[in-house]
Design a protein that fits this description.
alpha/beta, Rossmann fold, NAD(P)-bd_dom_sf, oxidoreductase
């Protein structure tokens, strides 16, 4: 039995990834922050389909809590007669936009803690528990790519770009252990980020769909299915890559 850890799986891309992995027979340790009910619902959805799941609280923006989280992970693994896990998806995140001249240090630091510092040091803390031959996927964004450059995302996009660079370094440094590391860059996707922005401002959907070659915005399953496939043996010869999954945004 393989085991995956997925951060930020109470909704959206994280939930889809967790459910898709559960359908493939992977046991899932998923995290939530600020949406406990959503995290429990994700775990219940996996278990109702015959899978195994544990939902744990985690604030990736508070690295001082990581030792306690690792302890909780060890306990969950013991319950499944394992001491290691096989797959890590650094997905938890927040979205915030502001023009460059209006971006405060407070906003920048918040994004830094969640989007880059959190995945960096959480991965470091979990690395001793990650089995040789395992796989890591980091959720980045096409806002860090030429295809997705959008005014107002200078901080968000820059930090997602830093996560892309970290992906390459981890792929290099962890390769002696056979650990693959890739990142996936979604385009505009219907999630709860930005305070349920698409529900609050549905008028932005049509212009985004018009900029997308396949004619619509993304849905969580568009990304979750791909992440699950990349983590599987189907992606066994892929490492060090940032793969845009956006339906051809900007083509």
């Amino acid at each position: 039995m393989q085991i995956a850890i997925i951060t930020g799986a109470s909704s959206g891309i994280g939930r889809s990834t967790a459910v898709q992995l559960g359908r493939r027979g992977v046991a899932v340790i998923l995290t939530y922050h600020g949406n406990q009910q959503g995290g429990l619902e994700t775990a219940a959805q996996i278990e109702q389909a015959g899978g195994r799941a544990v939902a744990l609280p985690l604030d990736v923006g508070r690295s001082e809590t990581f030792p306690a989280f690792v302890h909780a992970v060890r306990s969950a693994l013991t319950g499944w007669d394992r001491t290691t896990f096989d797959q890590l998806v650094n997905n938890a995140g927040i979205a915030a936009a502001a023009p460059f001249e209006d971006t405060s240090e407070e906003l920048f630091d918040q994004l830094l803690r969640v989007q880059f510092k959190g995945p960096y040091f959480l991965t470091q803390r979990l690395l001793p528990l990650l089995a040789d031959g395992g796989a890591i996927v980091n959720t980045t964004s096409n806002s860090a790519l030429p295809s997705g450059l959008t005014p107002g995302y200078s901080a968000y996009g820059s930090l997602k770009g830093a996560l892309m660079v970290l992906t390459s370094y981890l792929a290099k440094e962890l390769s002696p252990r056979g650990i693959r590391v890739n990142s996936v860059a979604p385009g505009a996707t219907r999630t709860r980020l930005g305070g349920d922005a698409f529900d609050k401002y549905p008028e932005v959907i049509a212009p985004l769909a018009a900029r997308t070659a396949l004619g619509r915005i993304g849905e969580p399953d568009d990304i979750g299915r791909f992440v699950a496939a990349l983590l599987s043996e189907d992606g066994a010869w892929v490492t060090g890559q940032n793969i845009e999954v956006s339906g051809g945004f900007g083509l």
